[in-house]
Design brief:
It contains four helices and seven strands. The protein has about 120 residues and is of the alpha/beta class. Pfam families: CoA_binding_2.
């Protein structure tokens, strides 16, 4: 079963960080929501940080954080390891992308919800 950590997972169903948890779960992913203020997101145990998830190297990390926050967690992402780092629309910046690539991360700039075959609009 593929794994994904959602950085910026939200308990607010209107937020993309919540829709991503639902979309990935619906498509068979083991989902690790990352939210330091929530115990769970959509019935899935949430973790305060990526380092605290029980998974080994993740298939993907999907980011729903502002670029200024995202760049601060790149070292943690690189230390944890992932096959794909998804920077969803609005999360990327030239500086963040350059640093992610310097750290050897496989950066994909696209909507990870669309990639799993769903549209955010289909997720009320």
């Amino acid at each position: 079963m593929p794994t994904v950590a959602i950085l910026g997972a939200s308990t607010d169903r209107s937020k993309f960080g919540n829709k991503s948890v639902r979309a990935h779960a619906a498509k068979g992913y083991t989902v690790y929501p990352i939210n330091p203020k929530a115990d769970e997101v959509e019935g899935v145990k949430a973790y305060p940080s990526l380092a605290e998830t029980p998974a080994g190297t993740l298939n993907r990390v999907s980011v729903y954080l502002p670029p200024a926050v995202g760049i601060k967690v790149l070292p943690e992402i690189a230390a944890r390891g992932c096959e794909e780092l998804w920077l969803n629309p609005g999360t990327e910046s030239d500086e963040l992308i350059a640093e992610a690539e310097r750290l050897g991360l496989n950066v994909i700039q696209a909507c990870s919800i669309v990639d799993v075959g769903m549209s955010p609009r289909e997720l009320p």
